[in-house]
Specification:
This is Cytochrome c oxidase assembly protein COX19. Helix content is about 30%, strand content about 0%. It is mostly helical.
Amino acid sequence: MSTAMNFGNKSFTPRPPDKGAFPLDHLGECKKFKEVFMECLKDNRYDSSMCRMQSKNYLECRMERQLMAKEPLEKLGFKDLLNQSGEEPKH
């Protein structure tokens, strides 16, 4: 008699991320932006809502250097950080 347990024939089928893969920043082109963002997270007890401008800057760096696909900032959740013309508000 076999004691092997059969949990069905369910198999896991991996699927790619919604936005696809993107290259790593091997040359450190956006390292400064990443470090500023990570420091902000640390200083704010990892509350990402406090570091949205730093996150936006990091993603813009990645898009400018073709380390990720260009996306409208509104689509990435930064609409409130843009003015009517689609640019960052002046401080």
